[in-house]
Amino acid sequence: MTAFVIEDEPLAARRLTDLLRRQNPPVDVRATADSVEAAVVLLQTAPTPPDVLFLDIHLSDGLSFELFEKADVRCPVIFTTAYDAYALRAFKVNSIDYLLKPIDEEELQAAVHKLRALHTAATPTPSFDAGLLAQVLQQLQPSQQYKKQFVVKVGEHLKVIPVENISYFFSLEKATFLQTRENRRFVIDQTLEQLEKLLDPRQFFRLNRAYFVHQDSIQDIIHYTNSRLKTVLLPASPEGDVLVSRERVPAFRAWLER
């Protein structure tokens, strides 16, 4: 079985490729692409289509559904996404499967087994309505409920801090801190990983393992060595300028341009 992997996060693409090659028998990943445009070129120039296309929903230059408008997709598609399983029931139609990130090896194995069973039975893969799936996704986005405020302890009192008053979160010595626009700092219970799921990704971005920042807190972006970027935050962070992890730079640029 052959596959193309369309994924804009290099680490996620490498991990999925490794997992596919560990299947028994291995899935032959013939090519990868990190954007809609690159995927279009790949599908248009490939001598033969793959047996399956692993497709991330959000790519660096837009939603992957645009691919179906620009290229002739003639193979089964397995979506990879961070949306929760309940919201994504609409995607499990017409023999289309989906895998939640981070991808679980057993779930991947089940999806590959399902595809192999279809091939063995010579069952034609039903066509699907990409426009309908895009519409479902758009309906899901506004309904997503993000955290609007945090309650922190100040001495004997509890203080409510609205999200719009937060500049960024950072971790230091196994603790997570909330930094306000008024340059006040509070310890909170959540980890940065938990905060990524609680807050609107259109407003907040994970710069690296230690910083999760609001877009308005970024006062300047400076080119650094080896194509890296560093940011100047307001209020200033305890460590001064904050570097964007190398693997997050493409996603950071796309986030800024959205």
Précis, in short:
With about 260 residues, the chain is of the alpha/beta class. It has 7 helices and 17 strands. GO terms for molecular function: DNA binding; phosphorelay response regulator activity.
Give structural notes.
- This protein is α/β, with parallel strands linked by helices.
- The protein is built from seven helices and 17 strands.
- It has helices spanning 10-21, 36-45, 66-70, 105-120, 130-143, 192-198, 249-257; strands spanning 2-6, 28-33, 52-56, 58-59, 62-63, 77-81, 97-100, 149-154, 157-162, 166-172, 175-180, 185-188, 204-206, 211-214, 218-223, 229-233, 242-244.
- The strands form five sheets. A five-stranded parallel β-sheet has the order 2-1-3-6-7.
- The longest helix is centred in the middle third of the chain and has 16 residues, at 105-120.
